[in-house]
Design goal:
The complex is a heterotrimer. By secondary structure, chain A is of the alpha/beta class. Chain A has helices spanning 42-50, 72-78, 95-102, 111-115, 119-138, 154-167, 184-199, 211-217, 235-240, 242-258; strands spanning 2-13, 16-27, 31-35, 57-62, 65-66, 80-82, 172-176, 203-207, 220-225, 228-233. In chain C, the strands form three sheets. Chain C has a two-stranded antiparallel sheet with strand order 1-2. Classes of the chains: A alpha/beta, B mainly alpha, C mainly alpha. Chains B and C meet through α4, α9 and α11 of B and α7, α10, α12 and α14 of C.
């Protein structure tokens, strides 16, 4: 079953065509990557899928229903979550509180029940806290649960943001350059983590520059160049695609593939 | 007076008031462009101009009093920037607006204590309160001609200054791209100071020239600031010349609104314009479409 | 459960404090001060609502005085105007049977038929809700300073309408507002024999509001508000209906301000146009900032204290100027509230090291 269906999407900014004729599907349970040189339109694509931008043309559907034009929060509630290229944690809160915000859409207590602290609300609060702690533990950061977000290192912020997105219990998770700024050891840990996430039943779509990571864990890769799809297929096919090599991978990759 | 002349009368009164709003709006725009601050105390400059001129006029001839008031208030504007706003650079725009609102209240109260609550007015520049000039069937006070004339000269001079003079071009550069301007060797702090001084001086001039018609009292600053703001956003923030169109529109709408509802609700027109513009076309008539990020997603 | 015991201790402490205040004023033969204190407590209710909207949700409102006035004027008009013609109609008869319309004596001693204060309160809530939604929906989509200007514009319109309408008393406002029986024995009224009881009523109501808001702020809703304040886009991406939540918060704070207005009007027996003016709205803003933007207790304490002093005339002719200066100082020196920098400074003094600067962060 196709979880995500992107069909003929086009988006311009002023006179600049950022994305054009982009069509692809993401099947459930897969890890799919979108790669391409800088300026290829990858983050724009993510912004279009997650609802932060409106496409000029084209349709995006999730679980069979069109989500084009829906506000980001509705898309999140449908089961599609994302992380951002620059970790966007809530700086006034602790790491745990950040992850607890991720539980917002899986909980119910509104103004009345929260203001009067009715019994159901108190139970829900502790359930939220426990679920958040579990997610933080999953990414290995339970030790910094109460640290203010502003005091965390860059890599830790990344992980907390990931935990927060996981807390929303998504069916599809969009990861925007999750490995950027990490050292090799952290990247390996990240790869393992992404595989574990897939084991939980979450489908993953990621944008990434690190070719080792991408080739290592992806089931399917889409290559974008100047906003237009260049090639699509499993890692082996992409690595051997002459156009892709010419435009993007080039000599550097031949070296990395063998390394 | 027949229907057409009545309408013309309203129009003229609207344009006269509107030109004052235009000057306040220009002041808003100058400071906003150069510093990003919406200076709510703009209206107080107008009030101070009138007040200072009235006090000076007891000692020196009228033209000297007006000139003196403009210079004094302009210097005050520069001092405000130097001693006060310069220290607040790290604050968000919102904080700065709130601060300028507080500032306008403080200036108002200081004026109350310096000059007391009595209403004052400068003498008519030419003629007096009953002299009038007939114009196409409507009567217009000579002072109104002074107002329109002064504002007209100011607008033309400002336009020429911004377009053709080096300092003016430097100011425009500052507002569109401060970093590039700095790299080009433009002295940003001086430009900011200049914008404050210029706005204050222009406001003071407006305050002097309108004083015989509307009188000057310590509380006149706030409504003027708000109507000037309405004019500024109607024209589109950041565009000093569009502010003129904005000001005249606000003044005209206000004058004609007397036909729709009782005079007591007069001000509601201007305030309503603020809401309408902000809700439906925040970039104003001449601004760029949502370029400044007025709305959230 | 530890939290419940904690709260019980607080409750006893506050009850004690109230008794201390009341009896020390009696001992000093200054019981008349309770009047201004009661009024100050009602003003603080407005500030609490503003604290929620501005401090937690990060949305500026420069027009909250207008909501206070809408509440007060609605109930004032309904409880003092003559509705004799309505009373004679079939609906009127029915309303009279339900005691919604009551017979009373107006300010001149003539018989009149007006609405019961409870009806005034309900109507005030309804009208405020409608206006808050109408204004809030478009306004809250605006950013920072545009929102500030929109709410300022709204406040000014209400002010001008109230000043210019004879039916609303124009510049004199409305007087002769009757007392309001909340419960048998609990009457909101300005008469001196009710003075002490009214002080307790105001204090208890304020504390209840404080407790409710405190619970709200520590819940999932409170986190969502902080998230919106911090990074609205990310909050949206996490499934939070940011526009809806901002509107609900704004609505809640408007209803709080209007309730305070209704209570205040029945307590003082009248309302005037100055309550809707820019000066009052700026004052609420200044007090919210001075109490610590996101500090409910701070807002309560600072607001009650300063409003009380202002009502006692301590600031003399500088009354407005004081709040103007307060606003400037608070926002320039400590935009997130004075308590944290003071705490940081104190800790630094105690530890004898350089105070670290938290990243300065303001509303969008």
């Amino acid at each position: 079953m196709d979880l995500l269906n992107v069909s003929n999407v086009r988006r311009c900014f002023g006179g600049l065509v950022a994305i054009d004729k982009v069509t692809f599907k993401v099947a459930a349970g897969r890890i799919q990557a979108v790669i391409g040189p800088n300026g290829a339109g990858k983050t724009t694509l993510f912004n279009l899928i997650s609802g932060l931008l409106l496409p000029d043309e084209g349709v995006i559907s999730f679980k069979g229903k069109a989500i084009t034009g829906l506000k980001p929060w509705r898309i999140a509630r449908a089961g599609l979550s994302r992380t951002f290229q620059n970790p966007s944690l809530f700086m006034q809160m602790s790491a745990l509180e950040n992850v607890m915000v991720g539980r917002h859409l899986r909980s119910q207590s509104g103004f009345w029940r929260s203001a009067f602290r009715l019994a159901g609300q108190r139970q829900e609060e502790s359930a939220i806290r426990q679920a958040a702690e579990a997610q933080l533990a999953f990414v290995g950061l339970e030790s910094v649960a109460d640290a203010p977000a502003a005091s965390l290192a860059f890599g830790q912020r990344r992980m907390v943001e990931l935990a927060r997105a996981l807390a929303t219990e998504p069916e599809l998770l969009l990861l925007d350059e999750p490995a950027s700024g990490l050292n090799t050891g952290d990247k390996i840990a990240l790869a393992r983590l992404i595989l574990k996430i897939r084991e939980r039943g979450v489908t993953i779509l990621l944008v990434e520059h690190d070719m080792n990571l991408v080739m290592g864990i992806s089931d399917e890769i889409l290559v974008l160049h100047n906003g237009v799809p260049l090639a699509e297929g499993p890692p082996a096919a992409i690595q051997n695609n002459p156009e892709v090599i010419k435009v993007y991978l080039g000599g550097d990759f031949q070296h990395a593939a063998s390394g | 007076m027949d229907e057409a002349s009545l309408l013309l009368q309203y129009l003229l009164s609207g344009i006269t008031k509107g030109s004052i709003y235009a000057v306040v709006a220009i002041g808003f725009n100058l400071i906003y462009s150069a510093t990003g601050v919406l200076n709510f105390a703009q209206g107080e400059f107008v009030m101070l101009g009138g007040m200072v001129a009235v006090s000076l006029a007891r000692l020196v001839p009228l033209p000297v009093a007006v000139f003196g008031a403009v210079v004094i208030v302009a210097v005050l504007g520069c001092l405000l920037e130097l001693l006060f706003f310069r220290r607040l650079r790290r604050h968000t725009v919102l904080h700065l607006i709130i601060i300028t609102i507080g500032l306008s209240i403080v200036i108002q109260e200081v004026a109350l204590h310096v000059w007391d609550e009595k209403v004052r007015a400068l003498p008519y520049f030419t003629g007096n309160e009953i002299s009038s000039i007939r114009f196409l069937g409507a009567a217009i006070s000579p002072q109104a001609v002074w107002v329109l004339g002064t504002v007209g000269v100011v607008v033309v001079a400002l336009h020429a200054f911004l377009k053709y003079s080096l300092a003016g071009k430097a100011m425009r550069a500052c507002s569109s791209n401060p970093e590039a301007a700095m790299l080009a060797g433009i002295n940003i702090p001086v430009m900011r100071n200049l914008s404050f001084g210029l706005s204050a001086g222009l406001g003071a001039l407006a305050g002097c020239v309108i004083s015989p018609i509307t009188s000057t009292h310590y509380e006149m600053g706030a409504p003027l600031a708000i109507k000037g703001f309405a004019a500024a956003i109607l024209g589109g923030l950041g565009n000093p010349m569009a502010a003129v169109a904005g000001g005249l529109s606000v003044g005209t709408v206000e004058a004609f609104s007397v036909m729709l509802w009782p005079a007591a609700y007069n001000d509601v027109a201007a305030f309503g314009i603020i809401l309408l513009v902000l809700f439906f076309r925040p970039e104003g008539l001449f601004g760029r479409r949502a370029g400044q990020g007025v709305r959230e997603h | 459960m530890r939290d419940t015991r904690h709260q019980l201790v607080w409750l006893l402490g506050i009850a004690g404090a109230l008794l201390v205040v009341r009896y020390s004023l009696r001992a000093l033969d200054m019981e008349y001060c309770l009047t201004q204190l009661t009024m100050a407590l009602y003003y603080s209710m407005v500030v609490l609502g503003l604290c929620l909207v501005m401090g937690y949700c990060g949305q500026v409102s420069l027009g909250h005085g207008a909501f206070f006035a809408i509440g007060g004027y609605t109930t004032a008009v309904l409880t003092t105007a003559h509705f004799d013609r309505l009373a004679r109609s079939p609906i009127g008869g029915w309303l009279q049977d339900l005691h919604v319309l009551v017979a009373r004596q107006d300010a001149f001693g003539h018989p009149a038929i007006s609405f019961n204060p409870w009806a005034g309160f309900m109507a005030a809530m309804g009208l405020t809700a409608v206006i808050a939604l109408l204004i809030g929906y478009p306004a809250l989509r605006l950013k920072g300073h545009y929102l500030a200007m929109a709410t300022l514009g709204f406040g000014l319109i209400v002010n001008k309408l109230v000043l210019g309408t004879a039916a609303l008393g124009a510049a004199d406002g409305i007087n002769g507002v009757p007392r309001w029986t909340l419960l048998p024995g609990l009457i909101v009224s300005g008469r001196s024999e009710h003075r002490v009881a009214n002080f307790y009523i105001a204090a208890v109501l304020l504390l209840v509001v404080l407790w409710l808001l405190r619970n709200l702020v520590r819940s999932r809703i409170g986190r969502a508000l902080l998230a919106i304040h911090d990074r609205e886009t990310a909050a949206n991406a996490m499934g939070i209906n940011t526009a809806g939540l901002k509107l609900k918060t704004f609505l809640l704070s408007a209803l709080l301000a209007a309730s305070a207005g209704v209570l205040f009007t029945h307590y003082t027996g009248g309302i005037g146009p100055s309550e809707s003016g820019v000066m009052k709205s700026v004052r609420y803003l200044a007090l919210t900032a001075a109490g610590g933007m996101a500090n409910l207790w701070g807002a309560c304490v600072v607001s009650t204290l300063l409003n009380y002093l202002s009502l006692r005339g301590l600031f003399g002719t500088f009354d407005h100027a004081v709040f103007g200066v307060l606003l400037i100082v608070m926002i320039s020196v400590a935009p997130e509230g004075p308590l944290r920098p003071i705490g940081v400074w104190l800790r630094a003094q105690l530890l004898r090291c350089k105070p670290e600067r938290r990243p300065s962060h303001g509303p969008a």
